[in-house]
Amino acid sequence: MIGQLYVEGDLRVGGIVEGEVEVTGDVEIGDLAKVKASVSARDVIIRGHVIGAVVARKRLEVTRSGSLTGDVRVARLEIQDGAT
């Protein structure tokens, strides 16, 4: 998907997204997902790969399999061992 995505509720990404993602609820970036976009949500869990700015109003978690390249603005940050 390329473009702007606005979701009222939660979102799970399992593929490729480019552009802008704004979600009122939580976002989970799956293991195989590749996101090249700004992401804004309440909680953001990154298991795949994200390139772009991330705004998590409550919590950002980057899991062992996840990677994040970009600016971050969060209330709470969790980075598991092995994450990049």
Structural notes for this entry:
By secondary structure, this protein is mostly beta strands. The protein contains no helices and 9 strands. The model has no long low-confidence stretch (mean pLDDT 96).
Question: What distinguishing features does this structure have?
Answer:
84 residues, single chain, mainly beta
Tally of structural domains = 1
Order of H and E elements: EEEEEEEEE
Strand content: over 45%
Helix content: under 10%
Low-confidence stretches: none
Number of strands: 9
Mean pLDDT: 96
CA gyration radius, whole angstroms: 11 Å
Q: Helical segment tally?
A: 0
Main beta sheet: 9 strands, parallel
Gross morphology is: globular
Helix/strand/pairing category: mainly beta
Oligomer: single chain
Q: N- to C-terminal separation? A: 24 Å
List the helices and strands and how they pair.
Elements: E1 2-7, E2 11-13, E3 16-23, E4 27-29, E5 34-46, E6 49-51, E7 54-62, E8 67-69, E9 72-79
Parallel strand pairs: 1-3, 2-4, 3-5, 4-5, 5-6, 5-7, 6-8, 7-9
Brief account:
With 84 residues, the protein is mainly β. It has no helices and nine strands. Helix content is 0%, strand content 67%.
